[in-house]
């Protein structure tokens, strides 16, 4: 099997598959960890029972999601070596230390305090427990810092030199870490994680409000989530626009692919809303376009000239159709999320927040939208920087391990089978937990009962109900 | 002049050893799962390690990430050479890792996740042991790349080291249970510890006998004069620790069997270090050839010297929070 296949294509498929599965979990746990910290802080400050109920409710879900993030993440840290050994050899001196710092400053922090956060409330008391929750939340953010810095360096490499062995080495660590695209990517991704979580929390809240408008826990989580969506979605759209302008400056070919601009336009480039990019013919078929709008967005002038892929050698073209469509999916969802936020604001203003079934249905429908947008965004940026792993300097084809196609093909199949079996089971368990309403008497850690029921196992009634 | 490369070799060796110490008993519990078919026993076994397993596995990530950072060439050569065992290990870790949460989320499929926990632990351990054997027996390198086939790792010797590690981790797991449980469960862990200790001594013996027959010559390193002055204390210490371990098991001591087993691991590990030094890929790449440039080493050394003591500190605190015996129905879950 797999004789005659291209080993590099298989390795790329494997990386894309394992990465796509992985990113879903951090995108959720970054936001959820912060949300849990906020809930616990509110509980400590107000002593209102609803907050600790919600904390325990989401903590169970966090535990399952975090576990899946950890195991799928270990896979990623070894895949650089197993499947991309030339890349590892050449970029190890630059990327390696950043990943080592991620482990030292973030992973250990999360893992070290996770046990106490999940199981330790009675053993350490509320204050120290809050510290543990805070450490886990901070850990997830530090992790985002380092891994996005490493990814950004691959997209917009600066501050490096090349040594006699052909390895990239750091000439200036600050320039490596704070490379040109890093601040934009970090802001864009962290906001995306917060939005993703708020949509999930809002969707779950709305689901339970559709059944019982008076459920206190559902009301509180829905309201908090909708505030988040209302406030952050517009900021995210602005941040995305800035990120795009930064990309135009440093990776113009990626923007050309996102826009479907095969041809250069001397006086004002059209914004192609939809169409079918044909890589071979180098044109977008069935294009629906708005004249000159792309120049206005990217250059802030209707008649500004805009270069197309015809200025880039063909062997350096990214796969336009994927980049083009992934980008549209992300942007479309972004505006839908903003729409949800604005709609909820209107209902809030009219005092219909907890009564509008239309709003609740919309929110339930948008529950998974953040995940899809995050995946589409990453697909846009990762396919758009092809055919390079280190942009303009190291080609993807020169980055792979010297492995035979059957080896990579077999492992790819193994990953597909295992991931679908394991992670679908995990998602089902999470959905089951979400299907339960936040228990009004959700066993809080302040009650002095055996740890068995106070920890992350739901109260006995909830467990029975889940089956 | 301090040699940063030697410092880094010790740091990576330390990270891998801490991983073996912390995840060894953890994986061992999975390996022993089939011997404890009762649900209450399994709940207790899971609960002895549930709050800390995630931190334990983070050391594996540090070992991998740290190696890519400090010895990128070795990472780039070893990982493709060990492709199949590495992928098997990662998939094994997926199964056992998710089982920690999943088995509490379902009654119908609980048994399935118990099998995933046991099977995943066994596969991950076997793969680690095989990888170790495959490194020791030598790896075909040309230029800056692995140049062998994708089944080169599979030899009788690597299978032997794989089995040896399974026995070793199982012994760590059994002595951990002696320390963390009570009653009938603890009694059975005692009996298992005896059997596993005998098996482990056989395994150490078998690996020691097989090693001189490898293509890579380690005998010279151990027995040539004057090396023997430095190497002789290792087997002597192994004998001494074994004697202490036998006595501790005889006394039914709580803590000593676990920590003495760790000492046995430490000595075997030191033995490995003696065999391999100064190579990181035996007989083809030395630590200096594989080392990252000095500015990468220094950049990370700053972080390591500040952060690793801190990490060890809060990890110890987490273990302290969950100290003591775990009883049925009083777990953390």
**In whole angstroms, how far apart are the ends of chain B?**
52 Å
Beta-strand portion of chain B reads: under 5%
**Greatest contact pair?**
A-B, 81 and 75 residues
Whole-angstrom Rg of chain B: 20 Å
- Care to count the β-strands of chain A? 6
The count of strands of chain B amounts to 4
Number of domains of chain A: 2
Q: Residue-averaged pLDDT of chain B, rounded?
A: 87
Helical residues, percent of chain A: over 70%
Give the helices and strands of chain B as they follow along the chain. Answer: HHHHHHEEHHHHHHEEHH
Write the layout of secondary structure elements.
The complex is a heterodimer of chains A (467) and B (333).
Chain A: H1 7-46, H2 49-83, H3 85-119, H4 121-155, E1 160-162, E2 168-170, H5 173-177, H6 182-211, H7 216-250, H8 252-259, E3 271-278, E4 283-290, H9 293-299, H10 320-349, H11 357-366, H12 369-384, E5 388-390, E6 394-395, H13 405-435, H14 451-454, H15 460-466
Antiparallel strand pairs in A: 1-2, 3-4, 5-6
Helix pairs in contact in A: 1-2, 1-4, 1-6, 1-13, 2-3, 2-7, 2-13, 3-4, 4-6, 6-7, 6-11, 6-12, 7-8, 7-10, 8-10, 8-12, 10-11, 10-12
Chain B: H1 4-32, H2 39-49, H3 53-70, H4 72-81, H5 83-102, H6 110-136, E1 141-142, E2 145-146, H7 156-180, H8 183-210, H9 219-223, H10 227-231, H11 233-250, H12 256-276, E3 279-281, E4 285-286, H13 287-290, H14 294-321
Antiparallel strand pairs in B: 1-2, 3-4
Helix pairs in contact in B: 1-3, 1-6, 1-7, 1-12, 3-4, 5-6, 6-7, 7-8, 7-12, 11-12
């Amino acid at each position: 099997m797999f004789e005659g296949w291209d080993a590099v294509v298989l390795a790329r498929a494997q990386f894309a598959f394992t990465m796509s599965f992985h990113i879903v979990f951090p995108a959720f746990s970054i936001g959820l960890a912060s949300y849990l910290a906020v809930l616990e802080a509110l509980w400590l400050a107000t002593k209102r029972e609803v907050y600790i109920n919600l904390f325990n409710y989401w903590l169970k879900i966090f535990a399952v999601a975090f576990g899946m993030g950890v195991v799928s993440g270990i896979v990623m840290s070894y895949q650089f070596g197993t499947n991309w050994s030339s890349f590892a050899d050449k970029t190890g001196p630059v990327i390696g230390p950043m990943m080592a710092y991620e482990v030292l400053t973030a992973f250990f922090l999360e893992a070290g305090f996770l046990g106490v956060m999940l199981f330790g409330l009675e053993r350490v008391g509320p204050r120290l427990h809050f510290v543990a929750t805070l450490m886990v939340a901070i850990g997830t953010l530090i992790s985002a810092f380092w891994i996005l810095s490493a990814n950004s360096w691959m997209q917009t490499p600066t501050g490096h030199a090349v040594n006699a062995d052909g390895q990239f080495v750091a000439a200036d660590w600050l320039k490596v870490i704070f490379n040109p695209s890093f601040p934009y990517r970090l802001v864009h991704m962290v906001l995306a994680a917060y939005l993703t979580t708020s949509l999930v929390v809002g969707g779950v809240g709305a689901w339970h409000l559709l059944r019982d408008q008076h459920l206190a826990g559902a009301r509180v989580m829905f309201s908090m989530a909708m505030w988040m969506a209302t406030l952050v979605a517009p900021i995210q759209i602005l941040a995305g626009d800035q990120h795009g302008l930064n990309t135009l400056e440093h990776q113009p070919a990626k923007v050309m692919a996102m826009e479907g601009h095969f041809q250069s336009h001397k006086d004002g480039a059209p914004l192609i809303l939809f169409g079918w990019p044909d890589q071979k013919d180098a044109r977008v078929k069935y294009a629906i376009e708005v004249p000159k709008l792309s120049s206005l967005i990217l250059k802030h002038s209707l008649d500004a000239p805009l270069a197309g892929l015809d200025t880039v050698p063909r062997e350096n073209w990214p796969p336009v159709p994927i980049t083009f469509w992934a980008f549209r999916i992300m942007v479309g969802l972004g505006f839908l999320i903003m729409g949800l936020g604005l709609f909820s604001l209107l209902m809030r203003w009219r005092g219909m927040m907890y009564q509008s079934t239309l709003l609740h249905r919309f929110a339930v429908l948008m529950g998974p939208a953040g995940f899809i947008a995050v995946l589409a965004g990453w697909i846009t940026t990762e396919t758009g920087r092809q055919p390079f792993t280190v942009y303009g300097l190291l080609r993807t084809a020169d980055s792979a391990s010297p492995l035979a196609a059957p080896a990579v093909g077999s492992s790819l199949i193994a990953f597909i089978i295992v991931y679908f079996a394991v992670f679908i089971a995990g998602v089902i368990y999470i959905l089951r937990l979400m299907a339960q309403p936040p228990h009004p008497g959700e066993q809080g850690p302040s009650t002095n009962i055996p740890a068995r029921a106070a920890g992350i196992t739901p109260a006995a009634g909830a467990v029975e109900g889940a089956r | 002049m301090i040699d940063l490369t030697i410092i880094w070799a010790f740091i990576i060796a330390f990270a891998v050893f801490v991983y073996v110490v912390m995840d060894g008993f953890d994986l061992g519990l999975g390996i022993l799962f089939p011997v404890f078919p009762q649900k209450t026993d399994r709940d207790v076994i899971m609960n002895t390690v549930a709050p800390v397993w995630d931190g334990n596995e983070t050391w594996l990530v540090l070992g991998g990430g740290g190696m890519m950072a400090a010895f990128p060439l070795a990472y780039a050569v070893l990982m493709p050479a060990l492709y199949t065992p590495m992928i098997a290990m990662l998939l094994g870790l997926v199964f056992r890792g998710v089982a920690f949460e999943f088995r509490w989320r379902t009654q119908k499929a609980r048994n399935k996740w118990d099998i995933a926990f046991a099977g995943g632990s066994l596969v991950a351990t076997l793969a680690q042991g095989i990888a170790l054997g495959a490194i020791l027996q030598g790896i075909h390198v040309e230029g800056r790349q692995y140049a062998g086939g994708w089944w080169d790792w599979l030899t009788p010797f690597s299978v032997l080291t794989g089995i040896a590690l399974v026995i070793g981790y199982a012994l760590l797991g059994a002595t951990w249970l002696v320390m963390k449980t009570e009653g009938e469960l603890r009694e059975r862990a005692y009996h298992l510890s005896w059997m596993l200790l005998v098996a482990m001594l056989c395994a150490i013996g078998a690996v020691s006998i097989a090693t001189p027959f490898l293509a890579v010559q380690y005998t010279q390193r151990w027995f040539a004069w004057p090396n023997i002055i430095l190497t002789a204390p290792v087997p002597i210490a192994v004998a001494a620790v074994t004697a202490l371990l036998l006595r501790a098991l005889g006394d039914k001591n709580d803590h000593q069997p676990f920590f003495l087993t760790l000492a046995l691991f430490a000595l075997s590990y030191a033995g490995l270090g003696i065999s391999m030094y100064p190579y990181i890929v035996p007989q083809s790449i030395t630590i200096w050839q594989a080392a990252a440039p000095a500015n990468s080493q220094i950049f990370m050394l700053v972080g390591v010297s500040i952060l690793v003591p801190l990490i060890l500190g809060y990890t110890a605190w987490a273990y302290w929070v969950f100290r003591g015996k775990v009883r049925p129905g009083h777990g953390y879950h």
